[in-house]
What we know:
Mean pLDDT: 78
Low-confidence stretches: 1-5, 23-30, 56-74, 76-85, 96-117
Structural class: alpha+beta
Largest sheet: 14 strands, mixed
Amino acid sequence: MENNDNIKPTDWGLIARLLFDAGQNATASGESGAEELTENEKTELLHSRSLSKKIDLYYSQKKYSETKAWQQVQQKTASRKERQLPLQMFLKVAAAVVVAFLLGAFAYQYFYAGASRLQNQLVAFAEPLASFELPDGTKVSLNSDSKLFFPKKFKGGTREVTLEGEAFFDVEPNPTKPFIINAGNAQIKVLGTSFNVNAYPGSDKVEVIVETGKVRVARKTTNTSAIGELILAPGDKGILLYPNGVLQKSKNNDDNFLAWKTHNLIFRETSLGDVIETLEKVYKTDIDIADDEMKKLLLTGQYNDYSLDFILEVIASTLHLEVEKKGNRFFLCKES
């Protein structure tokens, strides 16, 4: 195939200048300098202007790091010699790219008027949200298809949030102001620790696994007063079962309870059926096994942040299987 040297690369510098000079209410076709744009660049201009409007709320709340945004722009324009535009405009272009990625790839944050105060809602869609810092300094990683509700500022004697889905919390210590998570019919209370909570709507349980510190897990009634509780130490797992509200405490034997966050997987003579169940949960995909006898095969191995395609190829090679991918589904069968 011959290379087409006449294909013009997207001129992001010109797009940024038009955004700044013409303002956001003009059209791509009627602006001074717009005649220099290709059809693709006109589309990018309109798309960038639309995204820049969406980030106004983020600017007002100062949710983006200017340093990080500036680094994004420098990477995008390093190979071009364009005139200097005001930093504000560069930041809006960079933030538009960031917002596009956030909205399309994994998560976004927005504000909504609650019953009595302004609330934040953090949402992870198809991919986990790696890290987010709450107003008190607590760090949260949110698994896919999960939501976290929290106030703009923690007031009073507690720091209270609500979780729908799965999240890992690294709570900023504050002995005088407990951190409280409402998750389904469970209430989790800590002073400063790190732990994982799994509380997806529609699930038959709420599960808490503690990594450091101590965690109190309590059962709630509809009026939110806690009845019954567990005290969990590092390595403990607490479960609240629905619908009877039974609380159970045990040692955590799941090496991969944080694999959704780290993509580090450990299997110790684990049945292939359990391996596939873990991979489906971590990578949010479907993996079919040809027959039930194959599920009894045992696998030992460790995979640190590898792609699912690579992991399945290694498993297939180890267990003398064949792997086939059709669309977003994988199929494992015996070697022919």
